[in-house]
Structure formats: structure tokens, C-alpha cells
Amino acid sequence: MKKITGWSLIRLYTIFVYVFMFAPIVAVILLSFNPEQFGSFPMKGFSFKWYIKLAQNHDILMAFKNSLILGSLTAVVVTVIGILAAIAFIRYEFPGKNALNTLLLAPIMIPEVILGVALLLFIRWLQQPKSFLLLLIGHVVITLPFVLLVVQARLVGIKREYEEAALSLGASPIQTFKEITLPLLTPAILAGMLFAFTISFDDVTATLFWSTASMQTVPVKIFGMLRNSVSPEINALGTVMLVLTISTPLLAGYLVRKFSRET
Amino acid sequence: MQHKIWRPLGLLSPALSAVFLLLVVPVCFVVVYSFWLRAPTGADIPAFQFGNYAKFFEDFFYPSILIRTIRVALETTVICVLMGYIPAYFFYKTETKHKSFLLLLVMLPFWISFIIRTMSWVNILGDTGLFNHLLIKFGILDSPLALLYNEGSVILGLVQYLLPFMILNVYVSLEGIDKSLTEAATSLGCTEWQAFKEVTLPLSLPGLSAGCLLVFVLTAGTYLSPMILGGPGNDMIANLIFKRVIGTLDWPFGSAISVILLGILSIIVFTYNRYLGIAQIFKSMQ
Amino acid sequence: MSKDLGKKIDSVFERYKNGDLSRRDFLKFVSITGAAVGLAGGPFGGLTSNAWAAKSIRFDGWGGTTSEAFRKHAFQPFTKATGVKVIDGEFGDMDTYLTRVKASFPPGGEFNLAHLSGLFDYARYVGLDLQVALDESKIPNLKNAMSAMTKPYRAITKGKLSAVPYDYGQTGIAYNTKHISKDKAEKLGASLLWDKDLNKKLGAFGDWRTNIWYAALHTGQNPNDIKDLKAVWNALKEQRKMMKKYWGSGAELMSLLANEEIYATTAWSGRVAALQAQKHPIAFLSPKNCYSWQECIFVMKGSNLDDAQKLLDFMLAPEAAIAVAIGQKYPPSLDPTKVPMPEEVKKLPAFDPTGKLEGYLFADPTYWNAKQLEWAEKWDRIKAGG
């Protein structure tokens, strides 16, 4: 009996946390259907006007594409680099480990304004123009701590013995990593990629400094809109993305079930 | 014996070289700048003097904002732990088929830009916002509550932003725990709570501490939340850096504040790595 | 062709002057290290593209409707007429942009034209030695601009121009007509922002200049020559206690007013016009010695002047200037006595039908720029409650 009450409290609490996290999201979604630019509640009507405008806004859609490309590339690169570094920290002993670990977490310790300007000063000193590659590596550096922390925390929990057993059975270190460590690391890798993607996708300050004119991302566009007013088209864009993200796994699950029943 | 040093360094080298090139070297520029002088026109004059640092400590203004920043960061971290651990535990224990979907939901808020999300709190907590609207409609209140533009609303915005990091960090750590361990504990006569306290909680500490570090450091460097959700007296240290570097182009002084902030955070993170960090927890587990 | 060559020689010389040799060696070293650790040249592979290779010119401006109007009425026809592509950048805000320009390589080299805030920023860019001298005979449409607007620029750059004036506006007072009567607002003027009835329903632009300006008006002083500074600080301290929010962007300003979070605030005229167009009960008050400002299109050192001047001429053409004005809701710099203005422009707040801008008080750039460091910091302290 006691178990059930405890568990339902946990469930209730989780629902409460979800409500809190989604409160501003719900407001954004509702206001994307508001015919007026500045919504207050109760809403004065319902319209798809911002969605139609968004579909015609080539500029924002281009920026959105840029954001997606940048976010995905960052996620892939940083996850590979982050896993390697995490293995070094957790599986090996070497001098200066603490200092190096602190150093790799430094990107989130420096305000992005400073990082943004400092990197510009550096490439000026090198007399190099900005480029997409610079932006990408910049994002990799910013997102590295997120991946590093989550992968390290998981790796600590994976028992050394599993790996050693595989090694003693004659597997090469690479085989061992592929067959034993990697599958056990999967949740952390997925979480890390998700972190990296979202941080990169949503980064304003540093991107503002590093991006070239042809590589504007959505947050940079939004920052530019702040002077006049942020168009609810941005709300509409967010809503479309939410719907796609929620519906894709649901739809996939439904299709899988349907086909498996038929065959 | 020698490969023992070279192998970890080889694994670290991509990360280290990226961080070295794009962070360490540029930060050296910041350190150099922090000794320079600024001309009234906005040009920078190379010099070596400690005036910028002296200015920071000349009276209580800047240090007090630094202290406030650290306090807000601590408060945010504690709230994130309280709000994040239980949902993560729920995901670990639940047997529903939709677990991965529920986890995906945690990251969904990121599709809405941080600026938009932060600004939309005005629509919820404002005088004419959803919350006050409902309370007045149901007769609970006569006039709206002033919920916005104070330290509370700044922390609220930060927690909403940072909670997913805490939840997922803890969850990933919990997921690595062998469930048979808690089963063994209960079969040996432990209550559910004792099993959690003795087995699950200690084993989830790596994720919890990683999440805490992330939340703390990110809060300490934030400027958008206080700017949008804060009242007149809620600026944090990063706001001042932003104003000095961007607003008045006073790079030397802005650099000096950044170096001070970086120094304090490095000490905190280094101490954490040394005494509370993942490697330390790892050792105590063995 | 010869021009490009000249530019390259210039740049080589610049590099030589800067003692580039050791830097090149450093770069080589970095690349080798990068390759060795598997980064294949680090972030610098493929970065060698020549910034001057493409025949293009860069313009940075406000995004949204302003950019759309420029693209349609100036950039596209310009590219059609000259074959030069306009790279259309956006800045987040004025200050961030200046920071980027200052940190670019060579200083200002990445950037050509920018839609800057007049006088104050014009003087700051000149202070950083980023100005050019425009050949006004190549910009025939400049004749249509109000001479009252070009005059202050000439005063800064010794008779020459490094920019053309483009639009103007005011930071006046916006108030909610449901809660504040017109009589009361007009009687109080700037002191409306110190009205005790508006406790915790007041807002203000967080910028140090605007706040000091209005405190000067409230204490009966000339903002361009403040005698009793102490009274200004005291007024600001008093006002801060009643303040709900110091906003930082037009988007915030509009949402605060539209959602009735605040009833009165200092406000940008164009944003108030946008609220009025959406039928919100917000009025714009322009008190005596209201803070007026103008914006210009600045040309940065190192730009191809021929192209820049041609582009400026396209941007000053009435169709483009009026379309931009309607988009951003600030009146154009064109003299309404020379160029007929549509009704939509005439209705904009701060619009001056006489084309002389008499009674518009602009901030004296020498006075304010000299005080910037000290006053901005003092303001931060007051704002923080010190």
C-alpha cells in the first residue's frame, strides 16, 4: 500500500514539473494563433495568419535551414570528440588530470560575450576572415562541456570488469569498445547529442559574433528583430517544429504496429 | 609503461586542441587586455597596469554584484535538484511503453528560442497574464499579483531553461544502475526508501553532480534572463560585462571583470573536480 | 582591375607594416600542430578565400520589415543596374555591431555600409578612424535630404560626409490613454515619468543617455549642458523606486505597453506608431526638448567608394526611402517640401512637415561621448540601487 502512494506522489510531482516546463511553451503555441501581434489573455480570436506569413518568409526559412545544419554538424563532431575525452578522463590516470578536466569545462565558465569578442580578436591577429568552419568549431567548443559531463557520468557507472573480460577473451581494444562500452554508453551519447544540438541551435550571443552574413541562424534573426518587434511568425515556426517532433515518433510507432499486425 | 600517458593524451588531443585554439589563446588576449587603458574615443591603449582590477574592488558595488550572482546560481542549482531528481527517478522506474517519448518531451522546449521562451513569461506571470487572469476570474484575487521583474522571476526563467539538463544528466546516471542491486537490497529486508538511500542515490551521484555543476556555471554567466525578466536591481555580473564590453566599448575593464569571474569559477570547478568530482565519486565507489 | 591590384598591394603593405612575418610562422606552426592531432589543419583550412574576390558590397541593417524594404527597392535594382551583389547582413543592436566592426580584420574591413544611429555613433566610428570622404556629386539624390540633417555630420568630419542621413525619430513618452488623461500628460510633460500615481506602473529605456536626458528635463535643465548633475542623479534615484521595468529592446517596449504592464514610459516614436496602428490605446507625447535622434547610412573605410555611392543613391531614391519609412515607422530624411510624402508617412509621430527640424533637440555628440564612460557607470550604480 505504502509503495503505491509513494509512487503516485512521484508521478504527480513529475506531472507538476512538466506543467512548469511547458507553461511558457503553451503560451507561445497559443499566441501563434492569435490574430494580434501582442497577445494577452483571453485571446481575441483565432487565425492562421502567422503560419501563412511564415510559409512565405524565405529569409526565416533559410535561417532555419542554417540552424539545422549547424546544430546537426556540431552534435556529431562534439559527441565524437567528447566521448574520446571522457574515456581518457575516466579510464586512465595521468598527471594534471584535474587541471585538464577543468580546462575542458572552461567554455561554459566564460561569458559568451567575452568568448565572442576574444575569438574575433584572435582571428584578426591571424588575419583570417570568418568562415562557416570557424563557427562550427566555435560551437563544438561551447557544447563540449555538456557532452563531456554527461558521458563521463555514465562511463563511471560502467564496470571496468566488463571491458577487461572482453579483453581477456582476446578482443582488441577497439572491438571491446564497439561491442561492450559503446552500447552501454548509448543513453549518454544520445543525451549528449541532444544537448549539443539544442545548445547550438539556440545559441545567440557567440553566433552573433562569429557568423558570416550568409550564415545567419534563427536566434540571430530573432535578436535582430528585437529592436522593432519579434514577429509571431517565430512562434509559428516553433509550433511547427514541436508538432513535427511529437508526431514523428508517434506516427512511426503507429506504422510499425500497423505493419507488424498485417504481416 | 609509456603508452599509459600517451594513450589518454591521444584521446584528449582533438578536444584539447579545439579548446586550446578557440578558447585558451583567445582568453590570453582577454587577460592582456585587462591591463590596458581605454581612451575616451573608444580606442584601446596598450599598457601594463592594474587600474582595472583596482576599480573592481575600489568599493562594494562590483563585488556585491558578484556575490549576488553566486547566490542566484546556488539558489537556481538547489531548485533544479529539487525539481529535477524526482522526474528523472520516475523515468528510471516507470514501466510505461512511452518512456522514450516522455524523455523526448523534456527537450522539446528547446525548439522555441530561448529569447522567445523567456519573453513569454510576461504572458503568463504579467498583470494581464494567464496566471493572474485565471486567479481573478475565479475570484481568488481582486487585483493582480506582481510576479514579474524580481529575483524570483529571474530564477524561474533560469530553472525552466536549465531543468532539462539536470533531469537528463541524472537520468542517464540512474539508467546505468543495475536494477538487481535494489531488488537484492529489498529482498534482504530493506524498505523501498532504505534501498533508495543506500543503493540508488549514491550510484546516481555522478549524474547529479554533473548536472549541478552545469546549472551553477551556466547561471553564473547568464545575462539574458536578468535583462528580460529582472527588475531594476537584478543585474548579474554578466550583465555588467556585457554593458562594459558592448555598451561602452570599455574592453579593458570588461576583460578585467571577466578574468575575475573566470578565476572564481575555475577555483570552484577545480575544487569540485578535486573533492566532489566524478573521478572522486568513482574512487569512493570502488 | 587596377583598383583591385592596388587594394592587394595595400593589404600586403599593411601586413608588412604589422610585422606579419612572425604571425605567418605562427600560423604555420598552428596548422602543423592541428594536422598532427587529426584536425587536418584546424579551423583554418579552407579559410584562405579572398575577401575581395567577389564583386560585392556589404550592407548591415535592421532586420525584419526594414530589410525587406531595402531588398526590394534598393538592393535588387542596384544589382540589376551595376552587377554588384549586395551582401545583406543584420545586426542585433548598435553596440554589438560596433564591437564586431572593431574586432574585424582589418578593423572595419569585413563591413562596408551600415544603418547607424546618427551623430552619437557617427562620432564613435569617426573616433575609431573608420570614416571615408564621400563624393557628393555621385549621389544626386542626396540633394533631396534635409540640410538640417546633414549639417551636424559635416561638423564632425570637417565639412565632408562619411554617411548620408536616412531617417529620424524621437524618444518621447508613451502613455496609456485609458489610465492617463491627455490633459494631465501634456501638463506634466517630462515630469509625467515622476508622477507618484504611476508607482510601479512606470517603465523606461535602460540606456544611460535617455534616462539622464529626461532627468535633466524633469529638473528644468538643458540636456546638452547639464549644470546641476547632482539634481539629475537624485531625480533618477527617486524615479528608480517607482520603476517597474527598464526595458532593453523595442520588442519588450511594445509588449509592456500592449499588455498594460506599464502605463507610461520613455518610448521610441516608431514603436508607438506601430502600437497605434494595431489600435492599442497608447498616445505619444513629445515634451519640450524631447530627445530627438537621426539615423544614417555610414560608409566604412576600405569600401569601394564608387559602388558605395551608387548604392547610397539607390537607397535615397524616394521609393526606397518611403518604403523603408513605412516599414520601420520612422520618417525619412528626405525634405517633405521637395519630395511629396504619402499620408502614411505624414501621420508618423515625430514627422516634421517643414523639413527644417526646428525645435528638434539632438544630443550633442562631443558632449555626450566625452561623458560616456563616467555617466554610464554611475547610471549602472543608480539602476542597481546604489
Features:
heterotrimer; A: 263 residues; mainly alpha; MetI-like fold; 78% helix; B: 286 residues; 14 helices; 2 strands; globular
CATH architecture name of the largest domain in chain C:
3-Layer(aba) Sandwich
Largest interface: A-B, 102 and 108 residues
Oligomer: heterotrimer
What's the name of the CATH homologous superfamily of one domain in chain A?
Answer: MetI-like
The number of strands of chain A is 0
In round numbers, the mean pLDDT of chain C is 85
Shape of chain C: globular
Per CATH, the architecture of one domain in chain A is Orthogonal Bundle
Strand segment tally of chain C: 10
Please indicate the percent range of residues of chain A in DSSP E strands (runs of 2 or more). under 5%
Percentage of residues in strands of chain C: 15-25%
What is the distance, rounded to the nearest whole angstrom, between the alpha carbons of the first and last residues of chain C?
60 Å
Proportion of helical residues of chain C: 40-55%
How many structurally independent domains of chain C? 3
Helix/sheet category of chain A? mainly alpha
Pattern of helices and strands of chain A: HHHHHHHHHHH
Question: Which CATH class of the largest domain in chain C?
Answer: Alpha Beta
How does the helix and strand content of chain C classify structurally? Answer: alpha/beta
Number of helices of chain A: 11
CATH homologous superfamily identity of the largest domain in chain C: Periplasmic binding protein-like II
Structure description:
- The complex is a heterotrimer of chains A (263), B (286) and C (386).
- Chain A has 263 residues and is mainly alpha-helical.
- Chain A has helices at residues 2-32, 49-56, 58-91, 97-105, 112-125, 132-157, 160-168, 173-202, 205-210, 218-225, 233-262.
- In chain A, helix 3 runs antiparallel to helix 8 and helix 6 (132-157) packs across helix 8 (173-202).
- The longest helix of chain A is centred in the N-terminal third of the chain and has 34 residues, at 58-91.
- Chain A is globular.
- Chain B has 286 residues and is mainly α.
- Chain B has a single domain (54-285), classed as Orthogonal Bundle (MetI-like fold).
- Chain B has helices at residues 3-33, 51-57, 61-93, 99-107, 114-119, 121-125, 130-137, 151-175, 179-187, 192-220, 224-229, 237-247, 251-276, 278-285; strands at residues 37-38, 44-45.
- Chain B has a two-stranded antiparallel ribbon with strand order 1-2.
- In chain B, a hairpin with a 5-residue loop joins strand 1 (37-38) and strand 2.
- In chain B, helix 12 (237-247) packs antiparallel against helix 13 (251-276).
- Chain C is α/β, with parallel strands linked by helices and 386 residues long.
- Chain C contains 15 helices and ten strands.
- In chain C, strands 1, 2, 3, 4, 5, 6, 7, 8, 9 and 10 form a ten-stranded mixed beta sheet that branches.
- In chain C, strand 1 (56-61), helix 3 and strand 2 (85-90) form a beta-alpha-beta unit.
- In chain C, helix 3 packs across helix 12 (305-316) and helix 3 runs antiparallel to helix 13 (318-328).
- Chain C is globular and about 60 Å long.
- Mean pLDDT of chain C is 85; it is low at 1-27 and 29-53.
- The chains are: A mainly alpha (263), B mainly alpha (286), C alpha/beta (386).
- Chains in contact: A-B, A-C, B-C.
- At the A-B interface, helix 1, helix 3, helix 4, helix 5 and helix 6 of A face helix 1, helix 3, helix 4, helix 5 and helix 6 of B.
